[in-house]
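User: Can you help me understand a structure? I only have the sequence.
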Amino acid sequence: MRLLRILLIVVLLGILAAGLLLWLNVPGKVDLAEYAPADALVYVEFNDLAEVARAIQQTDVWKATAPITQSKPATQNRLLTTAARAGVAPIESVLFARTQVALMVVGLNTIEQDQTLRLRPEIALVAETHTSRWRTKPVMIDVVRRLTNMMYGASQCVGPTGDADRFQCSLPGGDRKLVGVIQGTTIILANSDSALTSCLEVRSGTRPSLSTDAEFMQSRSSVQTQQSLGFAYISAANSGKLFSWAAPYWLGAASANQQVQQLLAVSAGKILRGGAWTAMPFGGGIEDRFLFTLDPGVATRLEPAFQTADRDENFWKLVPGNVQSLTIYRNREPAAAWTSLDTAVAFKLDALPAVLFGTLLKSSLSSYGISNPKEALATLTPPLLTMKASEAAEGSVLIARVSDEARLRRSLAEEVFKGNNGQIMEGLQADPDPAKEFTAVFADGYVILGKSENVRPCLVALRNSQSAIGDEKQKMQDAARGSTAAIVTYANDEERLTNSIATLLQLQGRRLSGDELTSLQSQLARASLAETETRLGTAGIERKTHSAFGQFSTLMTLLQPNNSASAAR
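Assistant: Let's start by predicting it. Here is the structure, written out as C-alpha cells:
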C-alpha cells in the first residue's frame, strides 16, 4: 500500500511537472504594432488565429454548411490547444496555435490598363510564429507557394536556400510576385520590394514603428475588448490620403491628378480623425464595429442628419420580395440633413476645398438623376431608400415619399431630365425607354428615381412580387422594426459567403463540385442577411454590422485571383 502511494505521488508530480513545462513553453504575445511602419496606410492585426477559426466554426452558417463542405467541427479540447501552443504537436498545429499576424497597406499606386484606372496597393504581411526557423521554414515555403499559385496562377519560387533568408515567388513574364524573408521566428511577406523594405527598416530600427504612435495606442485600447478577434486602424493623416485616392473615382479619372489629390488629402485630414475596426462573436455570427472619428465641431454640425423621424412602414410595398440590398435613411428632414453635411464641410475648409467636397457630395445623388439636392430633397419626406431590387440591376434606385410632386417634377425637368436625357412616368406598369439615361416613376405618392437600366428591373421585380413577401424582405422587415438607428442597411450576403467558404476550402486543397456549389448556394440563400446600423456618437460615426462571418469573409476573398486591385472606368 505504501509503494502504491509513492507511485501515485510520483505520477501526480510527473503530471504537474509536465503541465508546468507546457505552461512555461507557451510563448507570450508580442505587440505586432512594433513590426509595422508608423506611416502604414492601413493596419490590421490578428493575435489568435485559432480563436478566429473557432469563432467562424461556431457560427450558424458554418455549422449549417458543414455537411456540404465536409468540415470538421471545432475542437474544444483546451489541453490539445495548450500543447500546440507549447510546441508539442505537429508543426502545422503549432504554427496555427502560436502565430500572430499583422496585415498592412504601406502604399498605393495607380496604373492605367485598357483605359481603366486601377489601384494597386502595396501590401505586407508579418507573421510572428514564436517558433524556430528550422521548424518554420518547410511549412512556410509550402504555404507561400500555395498562396502565390492561388492568387496569380502557376508561379515559380526561388529560395530560401541554406542560410539565405530571402525568397520570391512570381508569375513568369508578369510583374506580380510575393517576396519575403525569414528573420528568426518572424516571416515577412510582401507583394513588392518597397513594401518588404519598409518592414525590414522597422525591424532594424531605422524606421519608426506604429507602436510609437500615441493616437494608435489610444485607439486600440479604447476599441478592443477581451472578446475581440481582430483590430484595424487608419490614422487621421492616412484617412485623408485614402480619401484623396478614392475621390477621383467619384469625380472621374480625369480629375486624378496630384494637385487634386493633395488638396483632397489635406482637406479630408481636417475633418477625419482616423478610423478603427474590431470584431467579436455575436448571436451565431460575427459583429463588426467601426468607428470613424471626426473633428468635434464637424460631429456637432452633423447632428441634424442623424435625427430620426416617426416610423412610416408604408414604403415596404415598394420593396420587392427578394430584394438584394436596401438602405433606409430615417432622417427627420432630408433637406436639413443634406444642409448639415454642407455646413460640416464648410466649417473646417476654405472656399475651394469646400466647393470640391460639395461636388463630391452631389455626386452621391447624381447617379439617381438629382443635380440639385437641396431643391429635390425639399420635396421629399422620410424615410428615403436606396435599393438594389434584383440581381438583374447593375446599381441601385432611390425611393421616397413625395410631399410636393409638382415642384419635384419641375426640378427634375429643368436639370438632369431636360431634353432627351430622362423620362418621367406614372405607375408601376411603366416601361422605361432604355435609350434614355434616367427615369422617374411616380406611383401611389412615392417616386422611384435612378438610371433607366436600374429602374427597369426594379419595376419588373415589383410587378412579379407585389403579392408575395420573399425571405430576404421578411428578414429585413423584422430587423428594421427592432432598430432605432438613423441609417440601416440590409444586404444579401450570399455571394460573399460562397466565395469566402470556397476560398477557405481551396486553401485546404479542396474544391467544391458543381453539385456541392449549388447545394451551398441554396443553403446560404436562407441565412445570408447582413445588417448594418449607422449612428452618430460622441467621437464620430459608429457603424455596427451583424453578418455570418463579418469582415473575415471580405479578407478571405482577397486571396482570390484578380482581387488584388480595384478598377474604375
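Now, to help you interpret it: The mean pLDDT is 80. Residues 29-213 form one domain. Let me know which part you'd like to focus on.
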